[in-house]
């Protein structure tokens, strides 16, 4: 009888231990799935220092998870632990506020998350009423829609965490963050403006592009509707063949894009056309400033580059020749090759 009681006690103890072990395993398996990540930046021509990944809940668009890692060349660059659920995943280069003149508020919902520019602080001859933004740095992104992590995936990955490359074909979500290819999201403006009498202009000239966008919405894949301006100084000039008087000024700079549309001006408000303002300082002793302004809304063309950049191009001939003036370097060559500084005015930044 005593021996039977001992056997019964051992049996009950084994059952108890087995039950506890099973419960611990179940609690472990239903936590998170470790998902591998690899991103190919070569098509965007960007070699980022860091990578950001934002996971938004499909149900309400709220941010569920953030994952950051240092860019590297490993076959699997990082792993992210994701709870069971359905997500939209946004991937972009660098940390949210690491790109020059690009700020990303990660607390917004997926529908509203945007990259927004920064106000420029130093502007020459500011145009009243204009808000000036600095040229944005390089931004590229990709979006993974309908990314789902299930309990069965979590269980499978816990059992096969060392079996990379041997996953069954039906486990597509496990490899959904592998081999992602981001493309650039912003634009480049490329302008060529021909002037008769370019000989009489100092270098550089001041170019202001008005009433374009200063932000980009990831979900909609288009640009914001608040008009801003960008200002650059352009020193590149090329004289016409067999001419020492007439020529073309060229410039190229980065911006977010046009109002709302990715590669169209159909959303441009009729009362806020895209304008190009050029200030030219002549070579006379008085340093006379000539201002030319053009409505270029219907003159620009768009093309999407292989890296995703929207190229906005303008080729324009000024209809009025620049005034013929006498150089302040009286008796010397009429050509003005030196670079002149424009007066810089500080534009306060709202905080």
Global outline? elongated
Structural class by secondary-structure content: mainly beta
Following the backbone from N to C, one meets helices and strands in this order, namely HEEEEEEEEEHEEEEEEEEEEEEE
The total beta strand count reads 22
Strand percent estimate? 35-45%
Gyration radius, rounded: 30 Å
Helix content: 10-25%
Overview of the molecule:
- The protein is mainly β and 351 residues long.
- The protein has two helices and 22 strands.
- It has a five-stranded antiparallel sheet. A five-stranded mixed sheet has the order 16-17-11-21-20, with no helix packed on it. Strands 6-7-13-14 form a four-stranded antiparallel sheet, with no helix packed on it.
- A hairpin with a 4-residue loop joins strand 13 (215-217) and strand 14.
- The longest helix is centred in the N-terminal third of the chain and has 28 residues, at 2-29.
- It is elongated.
Structural features:
single chain, about 350 residues, mainly beta, five-stranded antiparallel β-sheet, about 10% helix, about 35% strand
């Amino acid at each position: 009888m005593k021996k039977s009681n001992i056997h019964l006690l051992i049996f009950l103890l084994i059952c108890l231990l087995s039950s506890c072990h099973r419960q611990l395993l179940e609690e472990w398996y239903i936590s998170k799935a470790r998902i591998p990540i690899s991103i190919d930046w070569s098509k965007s021509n960007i070699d980022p220092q860091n990578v950001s990944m934002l996971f938004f809940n499909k149900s309400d668009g709220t941010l569920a998870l953030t994952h950051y890692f240092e860019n590297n060349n490993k076959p699997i660059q990082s792993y992210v632990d994701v709870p069971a659920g359905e997500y939209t995943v946004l991937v972009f280069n660098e940390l949210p506020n690491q790109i020059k003149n690009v700020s990303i508020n990660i607390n917004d919902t997926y529908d509203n998350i945007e990259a927004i520019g920064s106000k420029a602080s130093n502007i020459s001859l500011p145009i009243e009423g204009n808000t000036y933004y600095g040229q944005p740095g390089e931004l590229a992104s990709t979006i993974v829609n309908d990314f789902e992590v299930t309990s069965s995936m979590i269980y499978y990955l816990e059992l096969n965490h060392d079996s990379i490359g041997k996953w069954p074909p039906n486990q597509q979500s496990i490899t959904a963050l592998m081999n992602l290819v981001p493309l650039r999201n912003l634009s480049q403006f490329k302008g060529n403006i021909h002037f008769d009498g370019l000989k009489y202009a100092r270098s550089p000239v001041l170019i202001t592009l008005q009433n374009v966008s200063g932000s980009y919405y990831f979900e909609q894949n288009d640009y914001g509707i608040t008009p801003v301006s960008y200002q650059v100084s352009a020193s590149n000039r090329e004289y016409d063949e067999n001419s020492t008087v007439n020529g073309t000024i060229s410039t190229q700079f980065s911006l977010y894009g046009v109002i709302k549309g990715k590669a169209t001006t159909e959303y441009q408000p009729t009362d806020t056309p895209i304008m190009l303002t050029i200030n030219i300082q002549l070579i006379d002793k008085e340093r006379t400033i000539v201002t030319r302004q053009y409505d270029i809304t219907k003159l620009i063309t768009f093309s999407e580059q292989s890296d995703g950049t929207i190229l906005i191009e303008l080729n324009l001939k000024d209809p009025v020749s620049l005034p013929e003036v006498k150089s302040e370097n009286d008796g010397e060559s009429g050509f003005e090759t030196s670079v002149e500084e424009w007066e810089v005015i500080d534009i306060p930044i709202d905080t």
